[in-house]
Each structure stands twice: as C-alpha cells, then as structure tokens.
Amino acid sequence: MPIPMNTLRRNTLRGLPLPVLTLTVCLFAAPLFAAPLTDTDREHLLVHFEMTTQMVAEQVRGLSPAQLEYKASPDRWSIREVASHLAVAEPDYWREIQKALKAAPDMNAKKSAATDADIMWYGIDRVVHTKTGGGHEKVDTYKDLGEALAKFQALRATMIDYIKTTNDDMRAHSFGDYGEVIDCWQWMLEISTHAERHIQQIREIKNDPNFPKK
C-alpha cells in the first residue's frame, strides 16, 4: 500500500541513476494544475510507466523456481510474491483512479498534500517501510510467475494507452482514497512509483548473501 505523503523523506538527488535524476528534476518544475493534460505531464507519465513496466520484466527474467521462491526471512516476500502483489494491487489502483476522474473537478478548492517530487521520492526511497494491507497482501493469489506477469503487463498496456490518448484534466480531480489528498495525475504517477519501490525490493532480495546462485 502506498506510504502516506507525510512519511516521505526529503533527500538530496546525489547519487541517483541518470534517468531517474533527469525525470526527478523535470518533475520539480511540473505545474501544480494543468487543464487538460499537458504534453509535459503526459510525457512524464508515459516515460515512467514504460520504464517500470520494462524493469519488472527484466528483474524476473530467467530466474529459477528456487530463486523466485527465496525469502531472506520468513516474514519477507519472495520475488514471486512481489510480482503477485503487483498483479493484485494495480487493478484496484486503476479502478480507483477511474472512479475519481468521473467525479466533479474539485482541486481548485484543495491543495495537494504532496509535490510531484514527493511522489517521485516514494519510488526511490525505501528507507521508510509500511505493511501492505487492503487485500493487496494476498501474495499467493498468483502462484505462477508467468500468470502474474501476464496480468501485470496486460493492465500496463491499458494504462499506457490511456496515458497516450486521454484528454482528462487529471490535475483538476482530487484523489484521497488513502488519506491525504493529491491530484489524480500524481496518483497515476504513484501507481508507477509504487512498482518502482517493488523493483528495488526485488533487487534487495537478489543481493541477499543467501540468494540461490541458480
């Protein structure tokens, strides 16, 4: 489950990979409101979604059953469980944003609890951890990696097509299903930065000294 905005740490940009650093710097300059979706906002979403979609596939490619099921400790997820979580969570997130966009525009009377940069840091900074809930912790929904990955990629294709073609005024609609209010463009970005956090989690599993060699 996404971390509330007031728990996000504000860090320096030093040491970030160039693609992430470039996108982060660009997002600092993104406007708080835009009507309808601007070319800049569209491109930022598209780049991030395409990046995380590709990275999930790359991180799980070629792993053995032992590697997919390895857990650093009994209370930690395996790589297969991380993939299952993404396949379970993203359909809910997508339905929630579609519902929010059907409501009357209301951000002119509200202020987002987060900046665009905060949303970016949510994907980058794994210092702050929270426990997943809302049914998204049911990581055994997909016991087969291929099934989970296919589910994830099919929805990503739908969301990427939406980003490419929509004229929805995403900045004008609020999203507050998880507490603090942000705008729908920010929530759409957070769907992708949520995946980015779990990509980092997969890398952490792989870097565990006891991770199977094959």
Task: Describe this protein with a few key phrases.
7 helices; Four Helix Bundle (Hemerythrin (Met), subunit A); two-stranded antiparallel ribbon; elongated; disordered N terminus; about 210 residues; mainly alpha
Write a compact overview of the structure shown.
By secondary structure, this protein is mostly helical. Helices cover 54% and strands 2% of the residues.
Q: Describe the strand arrangement of the main beta sheet, using strand numbers.
A: 1-2
**What about the largest sheet?**
2 strands, antiparallel
Task: State Rg.
Answer: 17 Å
Distance between the termini: 31 Å
Number of structural domains: 1
Helical content stands at 40-55%
The number of helical segments is 7
Query: What portion of residues belong to β-strands?
Result: under 5%
The CATH superfamily is dinb family like domain
Rounded mean pLDDT is: 84
Q: Specify the CATH architecture.
A: Up-down Bundle
CATH class: Mainly Alpha
Number of strands: 2
CATH topology: Four Helix Bundle (Hemerythrin (Met), subunit A)
Low-confidence stretches: 3-34
Order of helices and strands: HHHHHHEEH
Shape: elongated
Structural class: mainly alpha
Structural description of this entry:
This protein is an all-alpha fold and 214 residues long. It contains 7 helices and 2 strands; from the N terminus they run ααααααββα. It has a single domain, classed as Up-down Bundle (Four Helix Bundle (Hemerythrin (Met), subunit A)). Strands 1-2 form a two-stranded antiparallel ribbon. β1 (174-175) and β2 (182-183) form a beta hairpin. The longest helix has 24 residues, at 79-102. The chain is elongated.
